[in-house]
Amino acid sequence: MTSKKNIYIIILLFLTLTTFIILGTYYYISSKQENLLKSIYNSTHINIVKTTQNLIKDKQNTTLAIALALAKNDSLYRLMENKDYDKLEYKKISDELNQYSKYKNVWIQIVDKNGKSVYRSWTDLKGDNLLFRKDLKNTLTNQNVSTSISVALFNLTLKARTPIFDYNNNFLGALEVITHFNSISKDLKENNIDCLVITDKKYRKILKYPYTNIFIDDYYIANKNANMDLVNYVKNNDVEKYINIPNYIVENGYLISNFILYNKNNEKLAYIINFMDLNNIDLQIVKSFKVQIIMVSVIALIIIFFSFLIYLYSSHLKEIKSQENKKQSILDSQSNIIVITNGEEIIDANKKLYDFFKDANNLEEFRKNYVCICNTFLDMDNEFYIIKKDYGGKNWAEYVLNNEDKNFKVAIKNSNDKITHFSLKASMINNENYIIATFTDITKEVEQIEKDKEKDRLLYQQSKIAAIADTLKNIAHQWRQPLSVISTIASGMKIQKELNSLTNEDFNNSCNTIIDNTQRLSNTIENFTNFFNKDDSIVRFSFVESIKNTINFFDSIFEKNSIKCIFTYDNDMILDCNKNDFSQAILNILDNSVYALIENKQEDERYIFIDFTNKILQIKDTGNGIDEKLLSKILEPYFTTKHQAFGVGLGLYVVQEFFVKNLAYKIDIKNVTFDYENKEYSGTNFIIDFN
């Protein structure tokens, strides 16, 4: 009868909780879904703004590069001196850029020192004075290289100007390269973004010859490849609404983001209205969130239901246990020695204890012979081997109980006077002040460990030899470039000498370069000697200085492979260990990073960051990281992710042996994602904690 009543109560409580959980889940999903959408849209808006900014910056840099290249032209100086502007052939260059690059409308203009346009590659119009343009006037006045974004007679454009001087350093005028927003609009389109570049209406009167001839009222559309459907949409829905969007709006199936373009005087030039179709925005996280919350709710209901069942079962089990004494049978069924004690004397034990101590057949005899099992513990001169003594006010059992995260052992002689090793674990009996101590025989494991120590020693020596081989390859890399330079210079001097064209200045410069590279070879030899000094003594040395020496050791390899190594630290520290082993371990970590960067990254994305803060060393690269399935294995001997020609899997094993086994420091290896100079990278972070 009582059982049936309990079942009815469980069903009622479960249905009540189910109702509350379902209603709560519904309201929680509704509120969180709206916040998630806002977060995703805001993140998308920020990404659109960053993409737009980067594209504009790249276009400005490209425009400037073209201007600088075109200005270095002997024929340009001659034609400007003679005022033969009609012979300039920049229209041909514009056509070639249109044909062979993504920049389809590159305009080139020559302005004389008085501010008159004397040549335009895109039109025959010339002779007009352009000093009304502040950006051009500044270049003519200060005679400097500059870039700007401005509205002129023809369009809203990106401009780069470089002054033109003759060979007597007389100022002749300026060359200006003008590019448009069409390629930027095209690049945005490749990122699923349609854009309208809308010039502020205050520039309507300046645009005498509008390039695109597309207007919405007084607002000029500067990108010729603008989507006319969107132009009409903005026109029909009031253009003022879209240029005054604070950040973004969601409308008509689009996320519409506004990017305001300013000139160098912080005046509004234009508005880049970006349209992203909502179908191109990944909303999978919202769907996943709903599924996860529903699953959590279901799991919660299942847990609650089974909790009630477990409660009933536990109650029933207690009733059974109260009717019979099962404690001893449970203890005797264990394969390990189990002792119940207060740390001073034995309270109870299982049969395995008496099987081990042949001189005691029951608890009374054991108490008479030993009182406490701790009286049989042998002193093995090892902190992890427990003996009978005071542990800071706690007896041996209490000490083991309060340090359950440690792997304690005990050694006891059996009836044959042979030492047996046990692992020792302790737990507390509920509602009693007694401790359950479990002794598990690990004698075979201990003996095997002793046998393996010699193997480990040989393996460690082998790993150091492999590390030396890796370092020798680094030495070869560092020698190759200076030797090549010396050979090239010597050959050149020989040829010049044979042709009687070797001047004293060339001879001295060549000799200086040979001396510099010889010094680099000498430094490499010195570094090599320091790294492989056979002195195995423990010394005190500067942590930061040793790291810097190791970086210098890699200098030529970094230079050859376009790797930028950045070392930062907050404080130095003094280490007491073998300096050569420390340097070798750091070298092995850097060698792995170099390999990863060369294999996985373009030259402009190869970085190694070494940071020492709060006594924690982090060596992080941008090499795309390691397969998560392999992370747990890379410190094992003979495991490598490299090709057989590049490693045998012992480099990081040396690191593990030195820092963890020899110095007892902690090592962690993680795959990380991080930002550097507004760009996201991923790679491996090797962490060594010296605290």
Word description of this protein:
This protein has four domains: 72-180, PAS domain (Beta-Lactamase), CATH 3.30.450; 183-280, Beta-Lactamase (2-Layer Sandwich); 327-441, 2-Layer Sandwich (Beta-Lactamase); 522-689, 2-Layer Sandwich (Heat Shock Protein 90). The protein is built from 18 helices and 23 strands. Strands 7-8-6-11-10-9 form a six-stranded antiparallel sheet, sandwiched between helices. The protein has a five-stranded antiparallel sheet with strand order 2-1-5-4-3, with helices on both faces. A five-stranded antiparallel sheet has the order 13-12-16-15-14. Strand 20 and strand 21 form a beta hairpin. Helix 1 runs antiparallel to helix 5, helix 13 (443-498) runs antiparallel to helix 14 and helix 15 (543-553) crosses helix 17 (579-600). It starts with a helix and ends with a strand. Mean pLDDT is 84; it is low at 643-649.
Topology:
Layout (H helix, E strand, L loop, with lengths): L1 H70 L2 H9 L7 H11 L6 E6 L4 E4 L13 H9 L3 E6 L4 E10 L5 E9 L2 H9 L2 E7 L15 E2 L2 E3 L6 H9 L2 H5 L4 E4 L2 E9 L5 E10 L6 H40 L3 H6 L4 E5 L4 E4 L1 H6 L6 H8 L25 H7 L5 E6 L5 E10 L6 E7 L1 H56 L5 H28 L7 E4 H11 L1 H6 L3 E6 L4 E4 L1 H22 L6 E7 L2 E6 L29 H12 L3 E11 L2 E11 L2
Parallel strand pairs: 18-20
Antiparallel strand pairs: 1-2, 1-5, 3-4, 4-5, 6-8, 6-11, 7-8, 9-10, 10-11, 12-13, 12-16, 14-15, 15-16, 17-19, 20-21, 21-23, 22-23
Helix pairs in contact: 1-5, 1-8, 13-14, 13-17, 13-18, 15-17, 17-18
The percent range for helix content is: 40-55%
Estimated share of beta-strand residues: 15-25%
The CATH topology of the largest domain is Heat Shock Protein 90
Give the averaged pLDDT, no decimals: 84
Q: What multimeric state do the chains show?
A: single chain
Looking at the overall shape, the CATH architecture of the largest domain is 2-Layer Sandwich
Uncertain spans: 643-649
User: What's the CATH H-level superfamily name of the largest domain?
Assistant: Histidine kinase-like ATPase, C-terminal domain
Distance between the termini: 64 Å
Q: What order do the strands of the largest sheet run in, or round the barrel if closed? A: 7-8-6-11-10-9
Top-tier CATH class of the largest domain: Alpha Beta
Biggest sheet layout: 6 strands, antiparallel
What class would the helix/strand composition place it in? alpha+beta
| Counted beta strands | 23
- Tell me, what's the shape? flat
Number of helices: 18
Structural domains: how many:
4
Q: Return Rg in Å.
A: 39 Å
